[in-house]
Design a protein that fits this description.
Elements (H helix, E strand, L loop, with lengths): L10 H7 L3 H7 L7 H9 L2 H16 L34 E2 L8 E2 L1 H15 L4 H4 L13 H11 L1 H8 L7 E2 L4 H6 L4 E10 L1 H5 L5 H26 L3 E2 L15 E2 L2 E7 L2 E7 L3 H17 L25 H4 L15 E10 L4 H23 L7 E7 L9 H8 L1 E4 L1 E4 L5 E2 H16 L4 H11 L3 H9 L1
Parallel strand pairs: 3-6, 9-10
Antiparallel strand pairs: 1-2, 4-8, 4-9, 5-6, 7-8, 10-13, 11-12
Helix pairs in contact: 7-8, 8-11, 11-12, 12-16
């Protein structure tokens, strides 16, 4: 049944009730009378339809009953016989025992398809263990993220030379597991989880379907190619050493890509990279994302359609001194309305993935909260929060609790023994400082001494440092 057009909440009703908290939640807060019509114009557009559809979708996904639409609130019932073997992951009835795989797992039909798709995406062909089963279902052609990255290198000769050097790209393998990544990174890997900032506020001001389409394509290109540029700038193929050849299809001496792209979708990025380059990659992704949207970093064969609309107005006040804690005079003001915040967890390669994912997610949210905090001073750029974890038991609850209890001291004033999250400008300074210490062969014992003095206060630490 159609809604009565006479009941539509139109401009005359909005002008009467725009101070109502419920109306403010839909249309936004009005700072001045001249903003009333502007808020109404932004709301009453194609954006209103997409918002309504998104709300209905989330209500259905959460299990609410929607008229004339099936509900998803009931969990699946996976019936099986008590004497049949169950799948080791999803507890479905297993249909095959795969002796060729590590651990010789029992897999259900759903797990078989997932494992087959994963292997084909990495290796490019249907795995032999699946062909031996002679099942009717066959996976289609799947282009992995590694293949897309290699295509990017072939289309950009300068990046190809920077990444590959004298190595032949055809001889470089995709890393089959975290064990292989750990072996080429001194036993440590880094998880990077990045997410876009200011996306919701920007989308609310999109008025037409064409602008939505352009925005989606622009953000997708900026996200994807910011990752590709960062990987090509900071990584090189690495040689495997110390792996157990009896359980691996690769051999010692083979070269692999030192990263794993889990997903790049919309404004979300999940990567696993070698630990020694993680911070540089995270910083580069944030800078590349903004530069691509602004048109400062061009992509062969791709075009940013609405690059002028992503530029910030120069009229907004910016207080760089309150934004950056490091050489704020040299920092560049924010130029792009959209940016990326990242969480980086550096940890041992055998850390449980579910645990690492949870901590990386916490770091990403911490970085986003910091970006919102300093936005009031005119900063619209990216932020990065990171943590180095040498053992699984180092963080027993949340990262915030760990920092509050272990890295915060009260000696008159509150002393924080950490500086994260960082703006991209601050992170650049941190990375350059680390490089300078390494180049000077600065003794670690002196670093430990500076760290210990930090707990005694700023003046004592400064005196020791200057001495």
């Amino acid at each position: 049944m159609r809604d009565n057009i006479e009941d539509t909440f139109w401009l005359d009703k909005y002008q009467k009730d725009y101070k109502n908290p419920i109306v403010e939640g839909c249309f936004g807060k009005v700072e001045s009378d001249s903003q009333v019509i502007e808020n109404f114009r932004y709301r009453k557009s194609f954006n209103e339809l997409t918002t309504k559809l998104a709300i209905l979708f989330n209500q259905r996904r959460s299990g609410n009953n929607i008229p004339n639409r099936p509900s998803r609130r009931y969990p699946p019932m996976l019936e099986t016989h008590p004497y049949l073997r169950r799948d080791e992951v999803e507890k479905r009835s297993a249909i095959a025992h795969i002796t060729q795989l590590t651990g010789q797992p029992y897999l259900s039909e759903a797990s078989l398809r997932k494992r087959c798709i994963g292997d084909r995406a990495k290796k490019g062909n249907i795995p032999s263990w699946y062909q031996d089963l002679r099942l009717d279902w066959q996976p289609g052609i799947i282009e992995s993220w590694t293949n897309k990255f290699e295509l990017f290198l072939k289309q950009n000769p300068d990046k190809h030379q920077k990444y590959c050097g004298d190595y032949n790209l055809e001889d470089i393998e995709t890393s089959p597991s975290l064990t292989h990544l750990g072996k080429v990174s001194n036993g440590f890997v880094a998880y990077i989880y990045a997410d876009g900032n200011n996306m919701g506020g920007y989308i609310q001001k999109i008025r037409t379907p064409q602008e939505y389409q352009n925005f989606s394509a622009d953000v997708d290109n900026a996200t994807k190619y910011s990752v590709f540029h960062a990987l090509a700038n900071h990584l090189h193929p690495r040689k495997l050493q110390g792996i157990d050849e009896s359980t691996s299809r690769l051999r010692n001496g083979d070269f692999i890509h030192p990263f794993e792209i889990i997903t790049i979708g919309g404004d979300d990025i999940i990567l696993i990279v070698t630990a020694d380059k993680a911070l540089e990659i995270a910083k580069d992704i944030g800078e590349n994302f903004e530069n691509i949207l602004l048109g400062n970093l061009t992509i062969p064969g791709e075009e940013i359609k609405d690059k002028d609309s992503y530029k910030l107005s120069t009229e907004k006040p910016i207080d760089l001194q309150k934004i950056h804690r490091y050489q704020w005079q040299k920092a560049k003001p924010s130029q792009c309305k959209l940016s990326i915040s990242s969480g980086v967890l550096i940890t041992a390669y055998n850390t449980p993935i579910y645990y690492a994912e949870d901590l990386t997610n916490q770091l990403m949210k911490s970085a986003k909260e910091y970006a919102k905090k300093i936005k009031k001073y005119g900063y619209f750029g990216g932020t990065v929060d990171f943590l180095t974890m040498k053992s699984v038991t180092m963080v027993s609850s949340s990262i915030k609790d760990f920092r509050d209890h272990a890295l915060t001291k009260k000696q008159g004033a509150e002393i924080k023994l950490y500086a994260a999250p960082y703006t991209l400008h601050e992170l650049d300074g941190l990375i350059n400082s680390i490089k300078a210490l390494i180049a000077a062969d600065f003794p670690k014992s002196q670093l430990y001494q500076i760290r210990d003095f930090l707990a005694k206060g700023r003046r004592t630490t400064s005196l020791n440092y200057y001495y």
